[in-house]
Each structure stands twice: as C-alpha cells, then as structure tokens.
Amino acid sequence: MSVQINPSILSADFARLADEAKAVEGADWLHVDVMDNHFVPNLTLGVPIVESLSRASDIPLDCHLMIQDPDRWAPAYVEAGAGSVTFHVEAAAAPVRLAREIRAKGARASMALKPATPIEPYEDLLPELDMLLIMTVEPGFGGQAFLDIMLPKIRRTRALIDKHGLELWLQIDGGVSERTIERCAEAGADVFVAGSAVYGADDPAAAVRGLRELASA
Ligand code: DX5
Ligand code: ZN
C-alpha cells in the first residue's frame, strides 16, 4: 500500500476548521482527535463539529476517539460523516462487536493501542479491522516527543499483518515529523498522523508533501 499522510486538526485553529482543512490540500485524510477528559486528560470536540466539518470539507475524516464508552458513541461518528472511526481497545467493552458495527454502518473500523498496550493479545482480532493505530506518544496532547521505544511494536505488528496476509493499514500517531517519519516507515507503518509537524509549519501543504516524500523513500 502507498503511504498516507493524515494531518491532525488538534494543532489547527479550531475557529477556522474548514479553512484549515483546505490548507492541507493533498493530504489523504483529516485526523480528528475526539477527547472526553476521562479517557485522556484533555477535552476537544464531539459529534456536532464532526458533522459540520464533514459537510464543509471534501477530505475524508479519520476520527480518533480518545473517549470512554466508545461502544456507545462510535456509531454516532459514522452517522456524522466520518469515513474511518478509531476506538481505543483499552476503553471498548466489546471490540469485535464494535468493529463490526462501524463497518456495517459504512465506515472503516480501526482500533488503537496506547503505548503500554501490547499487540499480541489482539492478533486474532486483526481480520475484523481496516486499520490498527499504534500510539507513539501517550494520547491526550499534540506536540509531544516521539517514543522510539514503540518501534519494536510497529515491527511486530507489521510482521503479524503480513503473516496473515491482511490488507489492514498500520497507522502511527504522535511525534511524527521530518525527523521521525523515516524510522516509522522503515518499521512498517503506512499511515502517518502529524499535527504540529503540519499545522506548525509555514506551509502546511508543503509539510504534507515533505513527509510523504520521506516516508516513501
Ligand atoms: C494525541 C493525538 C494526536 C496529536 C498528534 O493524543 O492523538 O493525533 O494530534 O500531535 P503531534 O503530531 O503534534 O504529536
Ligand atoms: Zn490522534
């Protein structure tokens, strides 16, 4: 699969979200971080903003739910227009049922792992998913330093995906920048979320192109 770059609007100007989506022309998906101040110690946005953004923008939305009780809430994000919905396995009561529900409603189903959550217990769940997200920072905030200690987990996950011959996308989120993206790509990631590295740049669209080039090399 080719490389995908998903800018995270967590680092964008929340008062100008439609314009900020246009500023990353050429990006594959717009990454939308939903935080509830329970699963993570931060609060961002919810269903109504996702609904408005999906109407205002052509770029598909990749919703990353850092919330408790995703079993209850994830379907509403599909209905709001998200093309991909990621729930955290640490928060889900019934991840298989939830992934099936997200797919049945017409979105890509994705499951996220915090840094201390291993992939191995979830090997048998992988066919139920369209994407797996490995967090490379503790979720909650943009602008944190990339955790190099996650590289072995990325490699082991890539090996499991290949062993089973799955189409599953492998997404990395946290601290992705021009300095770290090559290491992640080499370890087997193919979908890269970048917040501060894109929206902190003078030219966000150029930053997306630069990241794509480095990851594709
Ligand atoms: C953090 C979020 C990330 C965040 C990444 O919990 O899930 O998507 O926006 O920001 P950077 O790229 O600045 O680390
Ligand atoms: Zn995220």
TrEMBL record:
Keywords (A to Z) from UniProt: Carbohydrate metabolism, Isomerase, Metal-binding
Binding site for a divalent metal cation: H31, D33, H64, D173
Catalytic reaction equation(s): D-ribulose 5-phosphate = D-xylulose 5-phosphate
Pathway assignment: Carbohydrate degradation
Molecular function as annotated in GO: D-ribulose-phosphate 3-epimerase activity
Record-listed E.C. numbers: 5.1.3.1
Listed Pfam families: Ribul_P_3_epim
Purpose: Catalyzes the reversible epimerization of D-ribulose 5-phosphate to D-xylulose 5-phosphate.
Family matches, as PANTHER family: RIBULOSE-5-PHOSPHATE-3-EPIMERASE
Protein's name in the database: Ribulose-phosphate 3-epimerase
UniProt gene name: rpe
